[in-house]
Design goal:
Biased composition (Polar residues): 313-323, 420-437
Radius of gyration: 42 Å
Protein name: SET domain-containing protein
Low-confidence stretches: 330-348, 369-384, 402-468
Order of helices and strands: HEEHEEEEHEEEEEHHHHHHHHHHEEHH
GO cellular component, one term: nucleus
Strand content: 5-15%
Strand order of the largest sheet: 9-10-11
Number of strands: 13
Structural class: mainly alpha
Region (Disordered): 311-341, 371-448
Organism: Diploscapter pachys
Length: 468
């Protein structure tokens, strides 16, 4: 039996040197492993390598082409979770591995953006993150004031205290797992309200706001693509800040955004995210890795959908061009005189009213038919000449004929020619409607062509480069 102090020392060595073993998709931890070779590499909060697991076999992979795995002095991987603030990381490393981290990330002043606040004086549409921790030329340690680097306004201390209280509250409820004890519906309502309130003082890059989103994503319905998309996009800035560019966690996040975009019909944007995720996975992992193959399948589906959309738009454009060839150009179309049309319509209405009243006098007035001169007093029909009787009879027949043919009244135009009113008014209106309809259809099809030119290239083999 080994002495108690020796057993305790072995336990401590095992505890601080063991590594988590996850499934190939990094969705859950399946055990712990003691890998002595990897124990020889130091930690960095901004690692240039990542280890992957295939069963119990761990493989160390570089995140950029300049990594030399044989040089342990320049090769690092992360011992802890990277979505933590500077203060959290230092405390965790000190409590577990007993050292003060002075890596590249911990000495980078911009890392304090993870605990920044929103400037209350800058416009809402242009939110500015102001660092309240770390050294900065915009901070006055003696006066204990923080200045916004954009609007040069001092951030009120009570506003900063409110933001600090919010971050401490978020940290406590997740460390104590208070949210997990709530019913699912209550969790959703509580986290949504907390996200809305915290978002008034904390920017999207704030890691504590990202923690709310991380827990909220797990309880939102998988079918609610729009909500999940908004949450992932809101956390994107923080994820890119915490992880190196080629880290698989970044690819996983971008892949999810691409999936939600494609589900809501925004295939063009989905291709952009899926392409970036594919490049990361192929570089960091390999083409035969399950995550790489699944993302490639999603990318192929999105590209196929884009090709189909382009073909549909192209076919629609060709049909429109064929129809446009048969349409008379706008310049060649006769433009009716609106003033003359109004006069024609007015005359036509008066004529219809006169016919309905069966008033020959009104009909003559409308048509301006020459009236038969009245005979002087004492004259009779017997004294009228045959010529006058014949002329009067023709005029009466003409008026009676017009009253019977109500739909085709005639009027003498300014040129002196008798013109069919129906031929003036009705075709002119129809032609005007056709003209307006043609203009509307032309604008719609032209818009399609413009959209097609913006979204697609003539050579669909070059589509990835175009979208990228």
């Amino acid at each position: 039996m080994l002495p108690r102090d020796v057993v305790f020392e072995i336990h401590c060595r095992d505890y601080i040197n063991r590594h988590a073993i996850s499934d190939r998709e990094y969705l859950k931890e399946i055990g712990k492993g003691l890998y002595l070779d990897m124990c020889a590499y130091d930690h960095s909060c901004r690692p240039n390598t990542v280890y992957t697991c295939k069963g119990f076999i761990a493989t160390l992979r570089g995140l950029n082409p300049n990594v030399n795995l044989s040089d342990r002095s320049t090769t690092f991987y992360a011992y802890i979770e990277l979505t933590c603030s500077l203060q959290q990381r230092k405390k965790l490393l000190k409590d577990t591995w007993y050292f003060d981290c002075q890596c590249e990330r911990c000495t980078d002043k911009t890392d304090n953006l993870l605990t920044s606040v929103i400037c209350p004086y800058c416009p809402k549409e242009d939110k500015v993150a102001v660092c309240i921790f770390g050294d900065s030329t915009y901070k006055n340690k003696e006066a204990k004031t923080v200045l916004c680097h954009k609007c040069n306004t001092i951030i009120p201390q009570d506003y900063i205290m409110e933001a600090l209280t919010t971050m401490n509250f978020i940290d406590r409820i997740f460390d104590d797992r208070e949210v997990e004890q709530m019913p699912r519906k209550t969790q959703l309502e509580f986290l949504e309200d907390l996200l809305a309130r915290a978002g008034q003082t904390l920017p999207d890059v704030n890691v504590y706001l990202c923690k709310i989103i991380q827990n909220l994503i797990g309880i939102v319905k998988p079918s609610d693509n729009e909500t999940l998309l908004k949450l992932h996009q809101k956390a994107e800035q923080c994820v890119r800040k915490c992880f190196p560019h080629n880290h698989p966690a970044v690819a996983f996040h971008l892949r999810n955004i691409g999936i939600f975009l494609q589900n809501i019909g925004q295939t063009e944007k989905a291709v952009k995210y899926l392409l970036e995720a594919q490049e990361i996975l192929e570089f960091t992992l390999d083409k035969e890795h399950c995550m790489t193959m699944k993302n490639q399948a999603l990318l192929n589906d999105a590209l196929a959908e884009l090709r189909q959309k382009r073909q549909n738009v192209k076919n629609g454009t060709e049909n429109t061009e064929n129809v446009a060839e048969q349409v008379v150009p706008e310049e060649e179309k006769p433009v009716p005189d609106q003033s003359s049309l109004e006069n024609v319509v007015e005359i036509s209405n008066e004529l219809i009213n006169a016919i309905e009243e069966k008033s020959l006098k009104k009909i003559e007035e409308v048509l301006e038919v020459p009236k038969v001169p009245k005979q002087e007093n004492g004259s009779s029909d017997k004294n009228q000449s045959k010529k006058q009787k014949k002329q009067q009879k023709q005029q009466q027949n003409q008026a009676n004929g017009n009253s019977k043919n109500e739909k085709s009244p005639a009027v003498e135009s300014e040129s002196g020619k008798v013109t069919d009113l129906t031929q003036i008014s009705q075709p002119a209106k129809t032609e005007q409607l056709t003209q307006n309809g043609t203009e509307k259809e032309t604008r719609r099809e032209t818009k399609k062509v413009v959209v097609c030119d913006d979204l697609y290239s003539d050579n669909m083999d070059d589509l990835p480069e175009l979208v990228q």
